[in-house]
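Journal club side-thread
Mid-discussion, someone asked how the predicted structure for our own chain would compare to the paper's figures. Pasting it here so we can look after the session.
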Amino acid sequence: MNLIQFYKPKPIDTKTNLYVHLDPLHKLGISGWIVEEKTLNSRIIEVWVNQTKFLERAANLYRADISAVLGQKLNCGFFITWKEINLPYSLEHNQVLKIKLIDKLSGVKLESIYITQNSFLKILQGKKVEEEYQIIKDNWLFDEPWYLKNYPDVKENHWDPIIHYILVGWKEGRDPSPNFDTDYYLFSNVEIVLAQKNPLTHYILEGRYKGRRPKPVFSDSDYRLSYFKALKVAQKETSLEFVPETDIDLSEARKYLPFKLIAFYLPQFHPIPENDQWWGKGFTEWTNVTKAAPNFLGHYQPHLPIDLGFYDLRVPEVKRRQVELAKKYGISGFCFYVYWFSGKRLLEKPVDAFFEDEVLDFNFCISWANENWTRRWDGKENDVLMPQIHTYETDCQFIHDMAKYLAHRNYLKIEGRPVILVQRAHDLADPVRTAEYWKSFCVKQGLGEPILVAVHCFNFYEDPGQIGFDAALEFPPLFRKPTLEKINQHALLLNPDFQGAIFDYHQAVEVSLNKPKPDYRYIRTALVSWDNTARRQDQATIFAFSSPYLYKKWLSFLIKKTFEAKFPEERLIFINAWNEWAEGNHLEPDRKHGYAYLQATAEAILENLPSDVSVKKPRVMLFKKGQRIFYENINLNQIIKKADLAVILHLYYPDLWEEFKQYLRNLTCSYDLFVSIPVEVYFDTDQIFDFHANSYIYRNLNRGRDIAPFLEIFKTIYPMGYLYGLKIHSKKSIHRPDGEVWRKKAIKALVGSPEIVDKILKTFEKDKRLGIISGKDMLTTYQAHVGTNQHYLKLLCHKLDIQWDGEDFLFPAGSMFWFRFEALKDLLKLELSFRDFEPEFYQIDGCLHHALERFFGLLVSKTDYFCKSLD
């Protein structure tokens, strides 16, 4: 964000964007920060009292608050004790001292402070400090001896350590103890800084109850897990999400669709002299892609291609295969980025080769990326390599150089009008006159009047008509800010230098789906995914939890909207992107997902296929439809109860389905089967229907592990009157060396033989107060597994008016158990939804689903039922 939005600092020097912020005066002295926004260089401050210069002070202290806001660590702070300027001793009765802070380099006055005896006395008191002091003093997270030992300046000045932390310490990124990381908490929760809240008191009063972490939590096992996951991808092992190329083929059908899908296409996959000079000999986009590393546990990096490989766009066969794939999966054309700088072209060869290849029969259009070419991929925003200088004359010249493309037989035209996109249309020297000139020129050349599309990004989200353009283009991930919430606080960071932003892709989808249509012509865009770690490792922007399902949901919604379009250009849908590999944003197949995103594209089209367009039914569908398959929400009206027993199975690891089939055969009684499978997992659901007649599939978003989908199924089918339930799931616990053994032991104890099943059901019938039956070694005490879950348990109890003060109880560890439906009916009152569960970052404790695992036992014990293990 811009500095002027933080604490509303004063712009002292508008030429250099010099900003200063003064903290509220406090009993230890004067503190604040000063930043020269263009260079971020440290400054020297002169301190004057009345007419006397007392000292000079370098503003070079680390400031965690402004660093967190700007996303990079800055040494720009200053701190001057009252003793250094002879206060309070120089204060006389009724005297007013004027303290001036002056920037030495520019001579500009930064701030003037007026102090009297009375005002100084009030500064030394401070009621708010007393309140915060008591909150911190009563909490174990502040270790006073440790603070004094690690920050000797506090001890030397005889400052109270808690007072120092409240007034100065947290702003300088100092930790109150080894158990709380101030920097991590601020960078993960920037809104706290903007609200000027002390991070430690925020955590004590609010953060811990919202699942915020006091410090990054990971161990050697986390690193090992991340390594082995990356190793499997590198060794080309098939992942859970991998989808092979299928028999689907929309090559002909796409020609007759009332809408067109256009994918953005990056041409930077071949060496050019300029890139050789700027980034080293042989640089292409693959140079960035292959060096990316995971920033947090479960982070998918690097993205590595299959099929097309690490291609070179100078090879004609590459583009032909790209077009073949695009056609097959329903894409109508590519939108090439054009890099044009007052007549100078970069990366023009792929576009020209596409233009010249007579074999290719595929639509294309252009998007002028009219911005400075900078080193921002490396995080250096101000290092301009090729400037974009706009004048009216040069802007007009652009259309002359593009005319040959517009005249091509394959150029994208809507009712005879060529479509031209401009990335920063608002930056043109005179956009209205330029638009008029371009249109006039094209008409005179017989090209047709172009449809000029202004991309909504970089602070331009207005009516394109204001700048002479015909339509605006939605361009995620560049939403109008502020829109999305950062979720850094949930991630287990593996990269200690990571200061980027992590967002939830699902939230981005919801923002787009709920966006009202503006009054002007508006073209929509679906984002495949986004993760520019390859370009900006430590400063990356990452949209976590993108998936083919959510992308399909987004694209399908936009396709439906085209049927309501008033203008023909609004029946275009852009896809970002075909091959932005360094931004983790590509339809092209990779080692993790295979062809899943291309398959999802085709299935979004098939969902909205007009009745007059025929397509051969594909043998393989990634997201099958059916009355007994539910996506995200379960339709109770489509469930037919045929038994008193409901088996609820969560199948995250589809390779375990054969194992579960063997156990389910031990159920000699009648049962209805409910199987939850995350939409991210590729699995042929027909296998389940072929195995058991009355089965239902719930395709859930991967959040809340097995617990969230269990609650969704439970609350849906509870009204149907089931008596008993069996909850099992494909637990592997890959963070544990005994995960496989643990799962098999737990399931065998519950459904290992027909005799075990018969004994369990008879036990339920015999004792009506029996609520849960677990395996002998799985039923454990809460006190033996408290973990970091107590705060969640208390919140859950409070929601149900349950009195619980931490006393012990039994619960089924691993959340596999038999249960009586009535014993768990109060789960309905919790009214929990998918959004209440933390994003999945491979957490091993402290999340809502971990607390609910324990809460099942606590709830049973508090509602006159009990838990027992089967002997």
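Post-session note: The longest strand covers residues 333-341.
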